Amino acid sequence: MVKLKLGPLPDDKPVKVSVELPAKLHRDLVVYAEILGRQSGQTVEDPARLIVPMLERFIATDRGFAKARRSVSQDR
Question: Which residues of 7-26 are buried (b: 16+ CB within 10 A; e: fewer)?
Fold first, then answer.
């Protein structure tokens, strides 16, 4: 089985976000949610809930961003 970057989603209060996604990206989110649900045993009813953890994961693992962020912090 393929190991996804996201694990189970935290059970926290949802926040409504409005964003337009290309249809292909939405289809990919739906498929990702299905696969994640099978792996974690947790049903993801709204694939849009994946957006925040995906962005958090992306930012947390972006070395270039981390380096630039440290540089900005040192300049202040």
Answer: eebeeeeeeeeeeeeeeeee
pTM of the model: 0.68
For residue 40, what are its two tokens?
């974690």
**What whole-number distance in Å separates Cα of residue 63 and Cα of residue 42?**
30
Q: How far apart are CA 64 and CA 42, in angstroms?
A: 33
Q: Is the dihedral of CA 16, 22, 24, 25 positive or negative?
A: negative
pLDDT the model gives residue 12: 78
Residue 69, token pair as written in the block: 């962020």
Q: What is the pLDDT of residues 34-49, one digit of tens each?
A: 999 999 898 889 998 8
Question: Do 49 and 10 touch, CB atoms closer than 8 A?
Answer: no
